[in-house]
Amino acid sequence: MAQIDYDGRVAIVTGAGGGLGRSHALLLASRGAKVVVNDLGGSRDGSGGGSVMADAVVAEIVDAGGEAVANYDGVHTWEGGQAIVGSAIDAFGRVDVIINNAGILRDTSFAKLEEPQLDLVLKVHLYGAFHVARAAWPHLKDQGYGRIINTTSGSGLYGNFGQSNYSAGKMGQVGLTRTLAIEGAKYGITANVIAPIAKSRMTEDVMPPALLDRLEPEYVSPLVAYLGSEACTQTGRIYSVGGGYMARVAILEGEGATFDRVPSPDEVADAWDRIEQVGPGSAEFTQGVMEQTGKIVQALGISLE
Ligand code: NAI
């Protein structure tokens, strides 16, 4: 069996004070990574803050014999990104792995969306991934090695009622990931993005207990630890992951219809079946977050009765 280790590697995990980020940080540290545990320590909607959450995870890592430092800067500002990477350089002299995981929710229907819900959600999810990856980039490039793992969501990939802000920020991370994979290729930098489903303070009131009980964050972290390791050179990919289920998600394009001159709208209507057609193939379209979750429920044989 492959042995995934992080000896000599330094990882930054944003939003690592709880939920998925904590789980990623603990697993990487247990495999030898020196970890910067970043967390602003705020509430689910991004308000407030403090050092307690990040400090607690650092204590857990140190108690288990690992190495970690806390960082309390917000990923949502350019300066925050610089300071988070600065913590890695100051404490450990390098940075190898970036796990952009920090997140907040400010759900509202699009009709009720106001600037505070749009601004901070995009800043944390989309700008945050930029800020930390951009601050780390010169270090990764100079050393010819880097692993970036971003965190999208089924809400981004498929849309979800009440989450236009969050969906857009999350899908933005997919675009960022795919371009970083291209720009990083010649420097040994990979970039991948996960769409996790896990029990956390973000989901504890939106999923049934029978499902949540099987969705411990620890089921997501092994994929992250593999993607973040030297052993994995896969890049530019999207993965759906939760509860022990892991699957590649792909963006598909059909054969389409081709016109050798500017078509009329009527000709577009006539060719609609060919424009719409994707496949045939084994991959299936996932129609929404509920179906993404449903696939996991089915794969795991969980009964929600
Ligand atoms: P969580 O709320 O436990 O974790 C998010 C962490 O980010 C919190 O500890 C929070 O304090 C921190 N944070 C928020 N704003 C920050 C900022 N500006 N700078 C630094 N840290 C900040 O929730 P969970 O579920 O662990 O979420 C982790 C990531 O996974 C998020 O990006 C979330 O959107 C994503 N995700 C989670 C899903 C799930 O089923 N739990 C589903 C899809 C995506």
General description of the model:
The mean pLDDT is 95. Helices cover 42% and strands 13% of the residues. Helix 4 runs parallel beside helix 6. The protein is an alpha/beta fold and 305 residues long. The protein has a single domain (10-249), classed as NAD(P)-binding Rossmann-like Domain (Rossmann fold). The protein has helices at 19-30, 52-63, 78-92, 115-143, 154-158, 164-184, 209-212, 221-227, 265-270, 272-276, 289-300; strands at 10-13, 34-38, 67-71, 97-99, 146-151, 189-196, 238-242, 245-249. Bound molecules: 1,4-dihydronicotinamide adenine dinucleotide. 1,4-dihydronicotinamide adenine dinucleotide (NAI) binds at residues 14-15, 17-21, 38-42, 44, 46, 53, 74-76, 101-104, 124, 128, 151, 153, 196-198, 200-203.
Q: Give the full name of the CATH homologous superfamily.
A: NAD(P)-binding Rossmann-like Domain
Detail the poorly predicted runs.
none
Helix content: 40-55%
- How many structural domains does the protein architecture include? 1
- CATH class, named Alpha Beta
Compose a concise summary of this entry:
This protein has 305 residues and is α/β, with parallel strands linked by helices. The chain contains eleven helices and eight strands.
Descriptors for this entry?
binds 1,4-dihydronicotinamide adenine dinucleotide; Rossmann fold; alpha/beta; 8-stranded mixed β-sheet; 305 residues
Q: Mind sketching the topology for me?
A:
Layout (H helix, E strand, L loop, with lengths): L9 E4 L5 H12 L3 E5 L13 H12 L3 E5 L6 H15 L4 E3 L15 H29 L2 E6 L2 H5 L5 H21 L4 E8 L12 H4 L8 H7 L10 E5 L2 E5 L15 H6 L1 H5 L12 H12 L5
Parallel strand pairs: 1-2, 1-4, 2-3, 4-5, 5-6, 6-7
Antiparallel strand pairs: 7-8
The structure holds 1,4-dihydronicotinamide adenine dinucleotide.
1,4-dihydronicotinamide adenine dinucleotide binds next to helix 1 and helix 4.
